[in-house]
Amino acid sequence: MENMRNRRNIKHGYARGWGIQFGDLKEKTLNDPLYRQAVSLITGRSVVSEDNRINLFLIIRDYLKDIPAGDIIEFGSYKGGIAIFMATIARQSHPKMKIYSLDTFAGMPETDSAIDAHNKGDFADVDLDELRRYAEGLGLSNLEFVRGPFEQTAESVLSRSKGVALAHIDCDIYSSVAYSYDVVKPRMVDGGYVVFDDALYSSCLGATEAVEDLAIRRDGLNCEQIFPHFVFRMFKDRR
Ligand SMILES: C[S@@+](CC[C@H](N)C(=O)[O-])C[C@H]1O[C@@H](n2cnc3c(N)ncnc32)[C@H](O)[C@@H]1O
Description:
Layout: E1 4-5, E2 8-9, H1 10-21, H2 25-30, H3 33-40, H4 50-63, E3 71-75, H5 81-93, E4 99-103, H6 128-137, E5 143-147, H7 150-160, E6 164-169, H8 174-184, E7 188-196, H9 205-218, E8 230-234
Parallel strand pairs: 3-4, 3-6, 4-5, 6-7
Antiparallel strand pairs: 1-2, 7-8
C-alpha cells in the first residue's frame, strides 16, 4: 500500500499530527459544524483535551471509511463525554457503526502505587442513569454504556461486535491499559486504529509503560501518530 512503512501510514500520520500541531487543521476543525455540534453536547462531561478530540473527529469522519467496517470501543467512559462525541460523529458518517463505552462507573479499580498516580475510586463522581437518559434524549441509539470492570465486560461486548475499527483506550493506569490493548487486539479489523488517550500525560506513567511494554517492545509496533496522542494501526499482515 502506498505510503505504508512499518505498518503505519506516514502520509496520514503527518496529515493529522502536523496538520493539528502546525498547520490549519485545528482551526478548520474547530469551525466545522459537525465538530461544533458534537462538542456542544458534552460540556462538563469529558476530560479529554481539545487536540485529542480533534484527532478522534478526523479519524472517525475521514479515515474509517477506508478500512473494513467495524465498531468503536472505548475503555474508560467517566462521564461519557467522548463516547457521546464519537457517537454523534459516527451517526452521520457511519450509520451502522455501534459505539460501546465501558467503565466501572464507580471509579478506578485497584491501582499500583509503584507506577500509577491515580488511586482506587478516582473518577467515581458519575451518575450512569443520568448519563443513559441524556444519551437517549439525544437519540444516540448507536451508543451503549457498559457497566463493570473491563475484565468482566469486554469479552462479551467484543463477541457481539463485528470487529473494531477504532479502540479508544482512556483508562490511565498500567493494568487497565494493558488489559484493554490485549483484549481488543485480536478483534481489530484490518488497518484498525488503536488510540491511547493518556500515555503521553505526565500523570499517567502507568499508561506510558503499558504502551512501551506491549505495543512497542513486545509487538514491535511503530506509531502512526505521537501527537496529540499515540495512534497505532493494527494490520493482519506485517508490512
Ligand atoms: C480518564 S477517565 C475517562 C475519560 C473519558 N473518556 C472522558 O471522555 O472524559 C478513566 C476512566 O477509566 C475507568 N477505568 C479504569 N480502569 C478500569 C477498569 N479496569 N474497568 C472499568 N473502568 C476502568 C475509570 O473508572 C475512569 O472513569
